[in-house]
């Protein structure tokens, strides 16, 4: 569930990708990419997600520009994962269900 818009000619960001791998380690962790718009943050995140997808049960790409976007993304993901019915109209239901699922997920 990650956008497939990795740059066609992605130039190596080995040092940044290594730093992310160290941050996450084998027990998970949090990393924040900061910098001016256009500097390549999204591309590094996409490359990391693609390179390490087999280490995780699921990789979610959450759109966070607004509260409703977050709810929508969670709700869509909950449906894709089969956690709630496709016909579920209540976004909060999908949000709560996915959050609970993530808290109990192994990887
Ligand atoms: N490593 C890279 N290799 C090739 N193109 C890149 C790379 N990083 C960024 N770009 C180009 O620059 C654009 C902006 O990068 P992006 O990751 O969206 O920046 P940010 O998220 O920091 O605003 C991308 O759409 C892509 O065309
Ligand atoms: Mg970006």
How is this structure best described in words?
By secondary structure, the chain is mainly α. It has 2 domains: 14-55, no CATH class; 67-103, no CATH class. Helices cover 46% and strands 0% of the residues. The protein has 4 helices and no strands. The chain has helices spanning 14-24, 41-51, 67-80, 91-103. Helix 3 (67-80) crosses helix 4 (91-103). The protein is globular, with a radius of gyration of 15 Å. 9% of the residues are buried. The model has no long low-confidence stretch (mean pLDDT 89). Bound molecules: adenosine-5'-diphosphate and magnesium ion. Residues 7, 9-11, 13, 35, 37-43 line the site of adenosine-5'-diphosphate (ADP).
Summarize, please.
With 107 residues, the protein is mainly α. Helices cover 46% and strands 0% of the residues. Bound molecules: adenosine-5'-diphosphate and magnesium ion (MG).
């Amino acid at each position: 569930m990650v956008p497939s818009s990795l740059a066609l000619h992605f130039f190596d960001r080995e040092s940044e990708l290594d730093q992310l791998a160290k941050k996450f380690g084998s027990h998970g962790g949090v990393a924040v990419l900061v910098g001016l718009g256009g500097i390549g943050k999204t591309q590094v995140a996409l490359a990391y997600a693609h390179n390490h997808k087999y280490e995780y049960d699921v990789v979610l790409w959450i759109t966070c520009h607004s509260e409703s976007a977050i709810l929508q993304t969670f709700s869509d993901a909950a449906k894709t994962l089969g956690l709630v019915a496709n016909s579920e109209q209540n976004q909060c239901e999908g949000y709560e269900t996915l959050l609970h699922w993530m808290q109990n997920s192994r990887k």
